[in-house]
Amino acid sequence: MSSVLVFLEIRNREISRISCEAVAAGHALAESVGLPVDLALVASPGNPILEHIHGKLPRKVYAIDHPLLHAYTADGYTAACAQLIEHVKPAYVVFPHTYQVRDFAPALATRFQQVLISDVTGIETSNGAPTFIRQLLQGKLNATYRHTGSGPCFLSVQAGAFRADAPEAGTTVIEPFLPKLEAAQIRVQPGEPFRASAQTVDLASAQILVSVGRGIKEEANIAIVQELATALGAELAASRPICDAGWLPMDRQVGSSGQTVAPKVYVAIGISGAIQHLVGMKGSQCIVAINKDENAPIFEVADYGIVGDLFEIVPALTAAVRKIRK
Amino acid sequence: MKIIVAIKQVPERDARIRIDAAGKWIDLADVEFTMNESDAYALEEALQLKEAHGGEVVVLTAGPERVGKTIREALAKGADRAIHIASETEDALAAYDALGVAQLLVAAVKDEQVDLILTGLQSDDLGLGQTGVILAELLGLPHATLILKIEKTETGIRVLRELEDGWFQHLELPTPAVLTVQSGNTKLRYATLMGIKKAKTKEVRTVSVAELAVPAQPVVVLEHVKLPTKQRTTQILGGSAAEASAALVEKLQFEVRAL
Prior knowledge:
The complex is a heterodimer.
Chain A: E1 4-7, E2 10-11, E3 14-15, H1 17-33, E4 37-42, E5 60-64, H2 74-88, E6 92-96, H3 99-111, E7 117-126, E8 129-136, E9 141-147, E10 153-157, E11 173-177, E12 189-190, E13 194-195, E14 208-212, H4 222-232, E15 235-238, H5 240-244, E16 265-269, H6 275-281, E17 286-291, H7 298-301, E18 304-307, H8 310-325
Helix pairs in contact in A: 2-3, 4-8
Chain B: E1 2-6, E2 9-11, E3 33-35, H1 37-53, E4 56-63, H2 68-77, E5 81-86, H3 98-108, E6 116-120, H4 131-139, E7 143-152, E8 156-162, E9 167-174, E10 177-181, H5 193-199, E11 204-208, E12 220-226, E13 235-236, H6 241-255
């Protein structure tokens, strides 16, 4: 019988949060099309993690195990997942949209003459036929996609787009899956992951973050944002382009390639709100956006917004904060 | 090193967003186009490799006539020649899915013997983030994504790959290989006046989509687009800068209780 097969990732010896969200998306999809859910992850069958599958119970958990999968490679994962898919024959294959998945899932889908529907933020099903929502133009537009191919439908879900289900009591079947892999298939030699520099700023523990983006235009202008941060007793953060330009150090970067934060207040200044930034901060309790473009995606997640020239608003805001802090 | 750089021309970042009559894309009237950001970084990496090791940089792009501007820009920056997969209309390529577009790219370069194929990690318009990886699979080549640095080694290349949460990793690959390049690791060059002049004499090979004989048989189709709905209700604070600021401070003080 056909199924929804969800691939999970282990990070820091746990099933990652986005993987739990992918499981929830998989269950929601499975219910709407009337199929069972199977999970799969690269792990030895004896790995205790397999006993801690969060969310609703799957029909089966496949523990994909092979010495050549101990370090991630696109070649190894593509081949192993392809063999499992041929074995299980799912109708849908669901991934968390992580950097690792982006590295191999498009090749995996190509192997089945399919196209991965990547970075999905919503699934809508009518008459047993699902459509998938994803964002275009850096979040300024939503598009609805439909899978029309005859093979399995591959999709990856965006971080934070689906709510992970509460764990359900009960047991599930854990089935080892031993793919046939040979060392010669792995063409890429991976090195050990490393951190470039010690993280000296812990943005995650800040109560208030003042974050600056492209709208600041020049390095010299960062001073006005720093003044606001100082007045608020906040840490200074930034979106990627600011750190890429070297205007602020990398350890102040918020987003998928930087830190994930959820402060009490997040003030986004001149940040349009590309999804890579939003995933790093949309869990904040209160989001304030200051931007000249009223259609900037940042306003989709903001609680308070000021539309206008940040070079006028930021100094005025600093003055207003100082007034009550005196 | 002979390097192909696959480049896409995309709407400018601040392009006005109005949905077109068919409801499948934005109205392109008055929209300015630009070189996709991460593709510009891929081009820069290619030019730096050529400067260090010699060789040739070939630009590969698909699109209607307007992409000629992006091709000239790449040639002016130092690419040696270009291949333009020309579509007759704006939406001729929209009939293809990511796999179909990659098949077109492969068909257009099948006679080129290359060491590297570079492209950006994703486009700023459709954001599928897959073209490079699909190309690698179709060509049977090894690949790596989210690449920040490329060094030539005796047997191939050594690259720096970005992982999540501030982690990195080095990888070694044999060549030929396909890499997708992340933005921001290096400074982009400007075209010089001399470069712009030279670009006019450089070869641009145009092949039509029809000539490549890749049928449009999408397995994934875009049905329609919509403006996003808000996830939170945003209170827009109006008035002068001082009034809006005072209102915000009051909200942060008494509603959010953060000050």
